[in-house]
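User: For my dataset I need records formatted as: sequence, then structure tokens, nothing else. Please produce one.
Assistant:
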Amino acid sequence: MSNAATRPPKHPPPWFVHTAWRVHRALYRLSGGRFVWTTSNKRGWGALRLTTIGRKSGRERSVIIGYLEDGPNFVALAMNGWDEGHAAWWLNLEAHPDAVIRLAHHQPRLVRARASAGEERDRLWQRWVAVDPRLDAYAVRRSTETPVIVLEPRNRTA
């Protein structure tokens, strides 16, 4: 058995992850939203712009996150750049579950967020593992379970 099989996967340092987040937001703004991609690409996942209400500030907060489609729902992982703790956008959604998402070339959509649980979480987690087989190895390095978030459409577009 090689050491490569037992070695935990490497992930980028926090400064790199935070810089990537800023670059994604800037590209979104500069491209008018054309930067984000849909699940029709070869990767099987897409990126969307999620706008939440800050749990402390009460102000709008936007972030670019990856998603999978699950019927009419959008599914995201509330990872904090592989670090401990949950993503700030998820903490905001726990306080205010209603949000707005925008996919490439689409009108904004109203959604309500919830954490999946039980068999649903297991099924959705496995769908993400199919996209990135290293997720299980990343997950065991965290002291808390990574929330698998379901963004369910509300009745109308924003």
